[in-house]
Every structure is written in structure tokens, then in C-alpha cells.
Design goal:
This protein has helices at residues 4-22, 26-38, 40-80. It is mostly helical and 83 residues long. It starts with a helix and ends with a helix. The chain is built from three helices and no strands.
Length: 83
């Protein structure tokens, strides 16, 4: 049997996929209200997972942008020095 945390993570993943497909963030709060009415533990795990996954996406986007800028600068520097 999955733990409350595992259930919250799985639910968050499914909801975030639905948000991406439908383009509607409101579903996060709709699901949150449904879960909160039945299980505060699951609600906390779900919202923590939503926040964590969104933060991870933002952090990865930032990292990828920094790497892209760094690699472009290295390429420009190599071209300038004939290397």
C-alpha cells in the first residue's frame, strides 16, 4: 500500500500533467479542496509535491539558460581566438 506521501506525489504529477494539457492552473486548487475535505495529511503531501515539482521545473529552466549562455560565451571566445 502506498504511503500518504507517495499518493500525494502521484496525484500532483497527474494534476500538473492535466494543467499542462488544459492550460488551467485552477484545477490544482480544485483538487486541493477535494483532498483537504477528506485527508489533511494527503492534502499536505499533495501541495508539497506540487510546489516541489514546480520549483524543480523553474530551477532546471534557470540552470539550462545559464548553461546555454555559458556555452555560447565559450563558443564566441573560441571563435575570437581562432580555437
Amino acid at each position: 500500500m502506498p504511503t500518504t506521501e507517495e499518493l500525494g506525489i502521484a496525484l500532483a504529477e497527474d494534476v500538473l500533467k492535466a494543467v499542462e494539457e488544459m492550460g488551467d492552473d485552477a484545477i490544482i486548487n480544485e483538487v486541493n479542496k477535494i483532498v483537504e475535505a477528506s485527508s489533511s495529511g494527503l492534502q499536505e503531501a499533495y501541495m508539497a509535491a506540487v510546489r516541489a515539482q514546480r520549483a524543480s521545473v523553474r530551477a532546471r529552466d534557470h540552470l539550462n539558460a545559464r548553461l546555454k549562455r555559458h556555452r555560447a560565451a565559450q563558443g564566441a571566445q573560441a571563435a575570437a581566438t581562432g580555437g
